[in-house]
Each structure stands twice: as C-alpha cells, then as structure tokens.
C-alpha cells in the first residue's frame, strides 16, 4: 500500500495552501493511489485536537490506467490544531493513509498529518530576507570612556581573558566580572556590521541588573549604567536605522532578579520589595510557596525568582499604555525577543505582542521556544495573535547533525515538518540559530577539542582541526542563510570564536585577531541574501535531492528561482538542473555543473543573474543585469 499512494502536504499538487491555513480559507486536497482496485470511496478524516473526528467524502476525479485520483475542498471555520488522514474503502476492507506513508512529512499526531488553522492574516515583516546578529553588549566593543558604576563588580582589563567560571565556597558563580562593552561600542561598529550584511541587531538584555549577562532584571525602566544611558540607546537606534539596521531587545519577563526594585532581597533599592514584606505592592508578582525564602525560581536558581504573569498589576506594568514594552518600543525599536516563552501564559504573550504593535505596527515579536512552536503539548505560540515567530532550534539540531553525519534526509524532514505546521509568516522570519549565548560556539561544536575532563580544561580548550572545523562551519552557515527563515549570527561566530557552554561561549569579540577567511565567507553570505532578498524572504522551499549526504533544494519566488546544493556526501556531486547556463552566486563565476565534497554552490540561471560591478569613478557598487540575447 505504501508505494501506491501519492500525497505530500508540502506539494501544491496535493495540498493548497501548503503549510498552515487561515480560517475559512479553501483547502484543496488531492490524493492519488493505485490500490485497492475498484474503490468504493475515499474519505478525509479530520480531527480537531481533543475533539471527535469528522469524515468528509472525497470526489472521484479520474481513473487513469488504474491510478485513481480523488479530491476535496474544505473550509475550517474555527482556528486551532487539526489532524487528518485518508481512508480508502472497497467492499472487502478499508485502508488508512496517514503520514506514516510519507517520510518527508513527519508525524503530526499518531500517524496523522497536522493542519494548523489560524485566524491571523499573512503579513510579511520588515525583517524578512535580512540577516540578524546577536550581541551581548558587555563582550562586543568598548566605545569611548569605559563605564564603571558598580561597587561590587570585578572590572576586567584583559579583553581576551576567559570569563570567570569558578564557583565560590557555596557552589555559586556570581557573573559579576565586567569587560566593559557598551552601547556606544556597538554604535562604533555599525559600519562593520553593515559590511557583514546585517539588517537587524538582537541585543541580549540591556536593562539595569546585577549580573554581567542581565538575565536577572533589576529595573526594567533603566538602561544599565555600565552599558550607558537612554540617550546612548536612542543614538544607537537612530544611527543603525540610517544604515538599514533594525534593533530588537530581549524581554525577560518570566522572572526578575532577586536584587531588583521589585523583589529587593538585599535591600539595594529604595523600595519595599516582595521579599521584604507581604504588604509590598510587588508581593503578588511572585510565586511564594512559603514566604520569604521559599519561592519558585528559574531553573531552581534562587537569584531569578519567577514572576506571576497572570497578576493584573504585573501584566499592566509590562504591557500597559505606560508599561515596559510600549515605553521602549516607542523609542524606535523594531521588536522584541521574549525570553523563556514556555513559562509565559498565552494571555500575557498576546498582550506583549499587542503592546509592541500599538507603538510600531511593524514590530516583530519573537519567542524563545525550544520545541515545536505550533504544537508544544497542544499549545501553539504562532497562531491566534501570538508571536510573529520563534527561535528555530529544530533547524539548528538537524543542520549540525547533517554537517557531522551527512544525514540530509532527516534535515529535509525537519524543514518539511516546520513548513507544514507553522503559518507562513512564522516560517519566513524564523530566527535561525546555530549557536548563541546558551550554547557552545559553532567552531567548538564542529571541531576536535581533545579530551575534556573539567571546567578548567574547557577554559583552556582550543579546536585542534581548525581547517576542517572551518569547512564544516561554512556548510552549516550556508544552510542557515538559505533555508526558510532569517539567519541569526552570534557575535564572533563569523570571526571563528570558540568556547564551550556558558560562560566559555561569552568571551569578548577578538578585534584584531579574527579568522579573516570566515569573515570573508560570512560577507559573501550576507551579500547573497541582499542580492536575492525576495527569494530568501518569501520564496517557497522545494527539495530536489535529499539523500546520501546531499541537500539540494530550490527557493522560488515568482519567476525567480535559486538552487542551493550543499554536498557532504564524501564525493563529487553533479546536480540535475533544468537546461540553462548557471552562475554560482557565491563567486559570480559560471557554474561548472559539479560540486566538490564538503562544498556549497548557490546557482541561478545566468540570464536572470545580477552581477555586482564596481564603478571606478564613483567608487560605489552598481548592479548590472544581463538579459537573454
């Protein structure tokens, strides 16, 4: 039965629209099969999550030499998660056709395909097709006079040193060593970022906090004094915008710091914090099991007490007319990334999104979600007025797996899974990460680091096979830049930075000691996305070959088609392309028809290719379009 059925939910010939559908949008389904002979009927079985299944008879279309075609168009009138399969029936028995017969569309639930139905209208974002760059301000660049405003801090003067990783006698790492990076430093490096092709900066938290990483908010309404002032932030936003670079901030709302104006465990603030009194105006913001030392906290780390986002006062403080989100967004922000989104309620997330968009209708709100954002235990983060998109960890894991092991089929399955289950607006602006402040550096993950037995060893570790690791980084980043979504580069990854997990992945950017070959590569990738922005912003993904260590796919938008071939097969690969002359967009040289092992080619018909050319007189880059004769 398996080999006789044709249905791929990401193929327009089988399902329109591909991916998620909108409420009341016609959904056309076409099923082809060769057995059983003389079927009595074919039906669609559609089940809304936690409800009873509904059966829809399909219409017979044709019998062509024993291949039967049945079709059906339905409309779903309420948003939610649905699951479906087909049944083919004759006089003797029924056959069930679910996603177990289509390995390219991973399981939705059981052996059913998932159908996500949303009330949201499709709307492209201002970030689509661009390049995102994540910066931890303390570790990027010191601009002007260094700020040293904290009495308890250990101010470091060894920019290339390893962040403190040793625990105190109580087993705690305090994260109070500061290297001096600030907002003015980011502003001074905007020209560098522009040359990388960056169109959006994602800044980890910049608000007042005790630690160097700032994921323990102390005062949401102040820029941390070591990073600068509110005027420094305004200047960064203004000057970045002139270069076509947007700014999004990290919103850490699922918890605060214990050393905060709201909790005030140590009495550092002139306020009555929740830790100090049950009569504190902030008491109900937190989840005390037994006041005052027994409270819920992030990852069981007591310096980060969890907030109660169902508390109306806390919600208003963050999302109200004069709340945190609107206050900072009106300064010119392009959006937010909501930290630890699984810990936030749906209502709070919706309020965050509405607050941001009231100040900037084009604001983009991301959520840090580690699993399937369309169906995390029945919960969807990307439908019904919630997030625009999410951090794309599913791509990350399988890109790394492909680069290490050559498992292209698994990666293609994951891409198909996300495209099928997420709304298109969420797919187009996925935050595609390969490493970040929570994970080991890409070079370290893909390199040989020798025998590592302790944190002391991790502090001193260095990749031994740098050339090989660099090659694998290029393969992984090529996929990061060409698959659906927006690449999010962690600061310094393009410079070859190494490091295991926190804090070794949070060293300072190595100005003056960068991997020039990798930076050149990342500039090429940035230029590629700029030249073909519409294709990579909204182009449809279609796999051509996803076997034996090769991922060969096309991105198509309108009449424009770009082919991407990433070869990790162990031998040379010759892709089968439509008859035409092709140009490799990474070199702007004619494509020779073959891709070497551990290499990448991104090709387009030469007649449609725009070739960059430099004008000697003006010293500016122009674009020349070569048309067919």
| Structural class determined from secondary elements | alpha/beta
Helix content: 10-25%
**How many E-type strands?**
33
The termini sit apart by 50 Å
What characterizes the major β-sheet? 8 strands, parallel
Low-confidence runs of at least 5 consecutive residues? 101-109, 615-629
Mean pLDDT: 93
Oligomer: single chain
Which strand order does the major sheet show? 23-22-21-18-15-12-25-24
Q: Which value, in Å, is the CA radius of gyration? A: 26 Å
Which shape, going by the Cα principal axes? globular
Notes on the structure:
With 629 residues, this protein is α/β, with parallel strands linked by helices. Helices cover 21% and strands 25% of the residues. It is built from 14 helices and 33 strands. An eight-stranded parallel sheet has the order 23-22-21-18-15-12-25-24. Strands 3, 5, 6, 9, 10 and 11 form a six-stranded mixed sheet that branches. It has a six-stranded antiparallel sheet with strand order 26-27-28-31-29-30. A hairpin with a 2-residue loop joins strand 27 and strand 28 (560-567). Helix 7 (393-405) crosses helix 12 (466-482) and helix 12 (466-482) packs parallel to helix 13 (516-531). The chain starts with a strand and ends with a strand.
